[in-house]
Write a structure and sequence with these properties.
- By secondary structure, the chain is an alpha+beta fold.
- The chain has helices spanning 10-16, 31-45, 57-69, 88-104, 119-126, 128-138; strands spanning 79-82, 107-109, 112-116, 142-154, 160-163, 172-181, 193-197, 201-205, 211-215, 222-224, 232-242.
- The protein has 2 domains: 10-69, no CATH class; 79-242, q2cbj1_9rhob like domain (Jelly Rolls, Sandwich).
- Helix content is 29%, strand content 28%.
- Strands 1-9-6-11-4-3-2 form a 7-stranded antiparallel sheet. The chain has a 4-stranded antiparallel sheet with strand order 5-10-7-8.
- The longest helix is centred in the middle third of the chain and has 17 residues, at 88-104.
- The structure holds fe (ii) ion.
- Fe (ii) ion binds at residues 163, 165, 217, 222.
Length: 243
């Protein structure tokens, strides 16, 4: 579908469950403007706490956007792996630092809490071996780390709505799980990190301490599915630039 001479309006697509095609995005969108336009289009289609039914038109629309924004991604598909550079003692140190930081300096941000990292994370991530490992896992050359933040989810909530990361965070995102508590009721579905992966579909990852994901958050629509009572997790998110 192409609307010549009409300014693209994400609300229109949401109302009609029609995916905007590449020709309908304002020409030459880059950087923050690209992020704002496509995150807006995604969020107009899918509210925080929702996931599309499998095979639905809504899912196809979201995957259509993923296909468009994923062109030029540093990493085409999220990679789940284990943070082999972080042994038990490093993970425990980071988890301790994150717990204290989230209490002392954490601020509410879209259903979670974010806090700047401290010395333990800075020292760990400064080791060149970490960036080298990330680059090998992803099959790209990375530069950095550029940004890092602790993320805490605690108890019932909608999770994190689908979005793209701001380009300033870095095209290669390393997300490490430091702590995880499951919902009290075992029948509840676990809260997962989800992605709309072009050519693959909706992918959900259930991370436990030491597990990590490597993905291009600036070009892969992602979020967190809802949390139930007792669902808690602490994550370390690190952004690397593509070298
Ligand atoms: Fe993100």
């Amino acid at each position: 579908m192409r609307l010549l001479g009409v300014r693209p309006n994400p609300a229109f697509y949401a109302a009609h469950h029609v995916m905007p095609g590449p020709g309908e995005a304002p020409a030459g969108l880059t950087g923050d403007a690209f992020h704002r336009f496509w995150s807006g289009a995604l969020q107009d289609l899918l509210a925080p706490g929702e996931l599309p039914p499998a095979g639905s038109l809504l899912e196809r629309s979201l995957l259509g956007i993923a296909d468009v924004v994923g062109r030029g991604a540093a990493i085409r598909r999220p990679i789940q792996t284990v943070a082999s550079w972080a042994g038990q003692s490093i993970l425990a140190q980071l988890e301790g630092e994150a717990a204290a930081a989230l209490i002392a300096t954490g601020r509410a941000n879209h259903g979670k809490r974010n806090s700047p990292v401290g010395e333990a994370a800075v020292d760990t991530l400064a080791a060149p071996a970490v960036a080298t490992w990330v680059g090998r896992q992803a099959g790209v050359v990375v530069d950095g780390p550029r940004c890092a933040t602790y993320i805490g989810y605690a108890g019932e909530g909608p999770g994190l709505g689908v979005h793209l990361d701001k380009p300033g965070f870095g095209a290669v995102n390393l997300l490490v799980c430091l702590r995880r508590e499951r919902a009290a009721n075992p029948r509840h579905r676990p809260s997962t990190t989800f992605f709309f992966t072009p050519g693959v579909g909706l992918e959900c990852f259930d991370l436990w301490p030491g597990d990590c994901l490597i993905f291009d958050g600036t070009r892969t629509p992602h979020g967190r599915s809802p949390l139930r009572s007792g669902d808690e997790m602490t994550l370390l998110s690190v952004g690397f630039a593509q070298g």
